[in-house]
Design a protein that fits this description.
Helix content is 46%, strand content 15%. It is built from 20 helices and 15 strands. The strands form four sheets. Strands 10-11-12-13-15-14 form a six-stranded mixed β-sheet. A hairpin with a 4-residue loop joins strand 7 and strand 8. Helix 17 crosses helix 18.
Length: 497
């Protein structure tokens, strides 16, 4: 790579903070610039960002550069490389050597590698930097769109400063969505009353959150604090169910609705996600036809339980093939597999029935649009208008939030603390959480009326939360709470940015 091409990727070397005004990722993130949690950025560390495509990884890199410049870091001490511009490790090494040669006197440098998985064996370059001692004065941040390849190679860097520094960058949680959307909506909605209450919601919610480890009484108290804002949260939850938590989709919808006075999401937006899903699989030498068959069954069976054997029988494919494709799609953050728990053996039912959910509602809409040939907006409006379909979407949203709340990359995966339960009678419990003091059950019933009989009680479970659409109730071992209020109170773990 020519030096001029490296300089082009690092405009702050010449312009400083002024680069922000014409950077497409920073100036183009409109109308709402969704911020993520900043990293600590300690020298000697190699930070890895893993997440699905189009969630804002490159924007996060550019925002990191902007913040470093604000803190007084010399512009020439920050190197950003979009690695998909390189054709070989040799080119990448040449660019690194050039930069390190110009910063030999710097006490600290920042190496930001975007789309690092574009180069085979990229991890060997990081290993070389660590073994040569370069990382003692450097902060290294890497991301890639091929999450399986990123995971595979990152695991080959033991003892090089990666431990404890891997993070997920996923779609925004509902809490993050509310905190960052309320201010914008307060300025554009026509109702003065709604605008005023949206303006008051953010400071109240900022000072109020719950941990799933909290007692039912603590959760009940937090829910009661937000009950006066139930109408506003229900309005925001409707938007979240429409767009999901992907910034690109959210901003596209907002521009259509409030700048172009046109309700809807264009088919091209869904196409981006479908191409991403199929593109990752194609790069990994998998077949689009097999992926399509599996995705079709997942849509048909959404929210229900079944075995992988049943799935393989339905599409007439080898059992191992189905597991392989599901594993890759899970590692690409397209979907997640929920296992059942066996209280008799006190362990996960590896061979029992599973449930499979998409990580974000818009991924579901995009896949269904691709499979049916209908426009994504038609799929969205159909889903939101069908109580049964919508119930499955809300159930998946709750489970993905519980996952983001408790997971720690590499150390605490979802299958170690989050499951569902089914008994011999066939009755189910949507979510089982292992807490420090036992188990908590969570059931989702997104409908007008619910009662205690909707809960499948199991002896080892100490208490339950029943998530409704509107109702608030409960007793000693049961809390009934609106799902929108509960999710707005639930933060993501430190493992998510």
């Amino acid at each position: 790579m020519k030096v001029s091409e490296i300089v082009d990727q690092n405009p702050w070397w010449a312009e400083g903070e002024e680069f922000v005004s014409h950077d497409l990722h920073l100036s183009g993130a409109e109308p709402v610039f969704f911020r993520r949690r900043p990293l600590e950025m300690v020298p000697g560390g190699i930070y890895i960002l893993r997440g699905p495509r189009q969630v804002g990884k490159t924007t996060y890199f550019k925002e990191t550069v902007k913040e470093l410049l604000k803190r007084g870091v010399p512009p020439r001490n920050i190197l950003y490389l979009s690695v998909d511009f390189f054709t070989s490790r040799r080119e990448l090494r040449g660019a690194l050597n050039y930069f390190l040669g110009t910063t030999v006197e710097a006490e600290r440098v920042y190496l930001l590698f975007d789309e690092v998985t574009a180069i085979p064996d990229w991890n060997l370059e990081l290993k070389r930097l660590a073994d040569q001692g370069v990382t003692r004065r450097a902060v290294v941040l890497c991301s890639g769109s091929s999450a399986p390849r990123l995971k595979e190679k990152a695991e080959l860097l033991p003892g090089r400063g990666l431990e404890g520094k891997e993070r997920y960058i996923k779609p925004l949680s509902f809490r993050e969505f509310v905190l960052q959307m309320a201010g914008y909506l307060a300025e554009v909605v026509r109702s003065e009353e709604l605008a005023g209450r949206l303006g008051k919601l953010r400071p109240v919610l900022s000072g109020c959150e719950v941990d799933v480890e909290a007692s039912l009484e603590e959760v009940r108290k937090a829910v009661s604090e937000l009950l006066p804002y139930k109408r506003e949260l229900q309005y925001l939850f409707g938007l979240y169910l429409t767009t999901g938590g992907i910034p690109l989709v959210i901003n596209h919808y907002l521009r259509n609705r409030y700048e172009r006075s046109r309700e809807g999401i264009d088919p091209q937006v869904a196409e981006v996600f479908v191409r991403s899903v199929l593109g990752d699989l194609t790069q990994l030498k998998r077949q689009e036809t097999v992926a399509r068959e599996i995705l079709k069954e997942l849509i048909v069976r959404y929210g229900t339980r079944y075995s992988f054997s049943t799935l393989s029988h339905e599409i007439e494919r080898n059992h191992a093939t189905v597991i392989d494709y599901l594993t890759l799609m899970q590692e690409s953050f397209v979907l997640f597999v929920l296992y059942a728990y066996d209280f008799g053996r006190d362990e996960v039912k590896d061979k029992g029935d599973k449930k499979v959910y998409f990580l974000d509602p818009f991924i579901y809409y995009s896949v269904k649009s691709y499979l049916s040939g209908r426009g994504v907006w038609e799929v969205i409006t159909e889903t939101l208008g069908d109580e049964e379909l919508l119930g499955g979407i809300v159930e998946g949203v709750v489970l993905s939030h519980l996952l983001m709340h408790g997971e720690v990359p590499y150390l605490r995966k979802g299958r170690t603390f989050l499951w569902y339960y089914y008994g011999r009678s066939g009755r189910e419990l949507d979510a089982m959480l292992r807490l420090r003091r036992g188990f908590r059950g969570i059931e989702v019933k997104y409908r007008a009326r619910v009662d205690e009989r909707d809960i499948r009680k199991v002896t080892p479970v100490r208490d339950y939360i029943l998530l409704s659409r509107d109702e608030v109730d409960g007793g000693k071992d049961l809390l009934v709470a609106p799902v929108d209020i509960f999710l707005s109170l639930l933060p993501v773990s430190e493992g998510n940015i």
